């Protein structure tokens, strides 16, 4: 399956390089040339690819990022600041980029309280969102979070519309959901998809999008401020490829069955298999890695295994056998040490 950017790169062919990058090996990793379009001012295949992706993500405008979701967070908050927003309500356990962007843009974060249950910060409730939003100019939510939980997006979007306040979503871990009603694009004014996390894109590949042209124009200005002026063409091509990658329903069904059969956490996201190991999580991770099985992370309570549409059913079966052979301990009720509130001095 070839995308517009990949076709453009193939058409360029080999040539004598007297341009950057310094490795001088022509091919996909090039700079802006006469045939390669320009991400900063797209008018050819890149522009066409962004329009294609916007349709898939149910967006009015979509912008490719080769700097990860972090540059998307900065761009969205820049758009909010340009629109006059001064205070943003955001979950207490937001990604550190939210804090950094707020600091850089002189925005105040009003933390949404989050209950910690069995060692995991849960998404804020409708009531908590309502209370925080009453004192804020905008709302930022995470959907889904690292553990596969979703906030009440539908209700939050309704509250924001009633109060005429924008809703932005950090969807860094939800790009695979664009086939479903769970995707942030169905609710947010602006959102970021961390395409490389759960779709087959190269690391740092992401997309930031807007629901309408008004926010799209402000977001475009934000992207110009925070996106690199030297983008990776292989990453760009992989972003387009990933968003256009077909859905893997058999794997989604198998993943949900896997969770029920192997004592995993009940969550709403099929890509995130969260296994409780408690105080034995360190030993479990070491045992798994000896077998060549590497998880996404171990927070001292849970080990998370991250799937994508490219995960093989045979690999899932192998993981199940390995998990069943490992002892499990008691899960702590405290929040994981590595999950730090956005206003903490440790962040």
Structure description:
Helices cover 37% and strands 14% of the residues. It has helices spanning 4-12, 45-56, 68-82, 96-104, 126-133, 153-163, 195-198, 213-226, 233-243, 249-261, 281-290, 313-324; strands spanning 61-65, 87-91, 108-112, 116-117, 120-121, 138-142, 167-171, 190-193, 206-210, 272-276, 297-298, 302-306. It has a 7-stranded mixed sheet, with helices on both faces. Strands 10-12-11 form a 3-stranded antiparallel sheet. A hairpin with a 2-residue loop joins strand 4 and strand 5 (120-121). 47% of the residues are buried.
Give a brief rundown of this model.
This protein is α/β, with parallel strands linked by helices and 347 residues long.
| Intertermini distance | 41 Å
Strand content: 5-15%
What radius of gyration results from the CA coordinates? Answer: 21 Å
- Tell the overall outline: globular
Q: What is the number of helical segments per DSSP (H or I, 4+ residues)?
A: 12
Low-confidence stretches: none
Q: How would you spell out the order of helices and strands? A: HHEHEHEEEHEHEEHEHHHEHEEH
User: Which range best describes the helical content: under 10%, 10-25%, 25-40%, 40-55%, 55-70% or over 70%?
Assistant: 25-40%
């Amino acid at each position: 399956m070839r995308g517009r950017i990949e076709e453009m790169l193939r058409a360029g062919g080999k040539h004598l390089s007297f341009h950057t990058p310094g490795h001088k090996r022509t091919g996909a990793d090039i700079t802006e040339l006469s045939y390669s379009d320009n991400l900063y001012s797209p008018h050819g295949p890149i522009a066409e690819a962004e329009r294609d992706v916007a349709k898939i993500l149910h967006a009015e405008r979509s912008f490719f990022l080769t700097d990860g979701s972090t540059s998307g967070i900065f761009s969205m908050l820049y758009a909010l600041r340009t629109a006059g927003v001064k205070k943003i309500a955001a979950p207490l356990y937001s990604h550190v980029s939210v804090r950094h962007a707020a600091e850089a843009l002189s925005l105040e974060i009003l933390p949404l309280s989050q209950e910690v249950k069995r060692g995991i910060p849960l998404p804020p409730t409708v009531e908590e969102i309502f209370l925080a939003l009453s004192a804020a100019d905008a709302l930022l939510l995470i959907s889904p979070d690292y553990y596969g939980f979703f906030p009440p997006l539908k209700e939050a979007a309704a509250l924001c519309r009633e109060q005429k306040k924008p809703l932005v979503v950090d969807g860094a871990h939800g790009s695979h959901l664009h086939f479903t009603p769970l995707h942030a694009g169905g609710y947010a004014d602006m959102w970021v998809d961390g395409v490389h996390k759960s779709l087959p894109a190269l690391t740092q590949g992401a997309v930031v999008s807007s629901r309408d042209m008004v926010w799209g124009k402000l977001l475009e200005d934000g992207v110009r401020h925070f996106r690199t002026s030297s983008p990776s063409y292989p990453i760009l091509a992989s972003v387009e490829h990933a968003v256009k990658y077909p859905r893997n329903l058999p794997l989604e069904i198998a993943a949900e069955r896997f969770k029920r059969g192997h004592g995993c956490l009940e969550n709403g996201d099929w890509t995130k298999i969260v296994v409780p190991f408690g105080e034995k999580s360190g030993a479990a991770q070491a045992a798994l890695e000896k077998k060549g099985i590497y998880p996404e992370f171990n927070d001292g309570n849970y080990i998370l295994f991250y799937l994508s549409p490219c995960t093989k059913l045979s690999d899932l079966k192998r993981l199940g056998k390995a998990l069943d052979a490992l002892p499990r301990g008691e899960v702590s009720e405290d929040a994981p040490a590595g999950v730090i509130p956005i206003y903490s001095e440790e962040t």
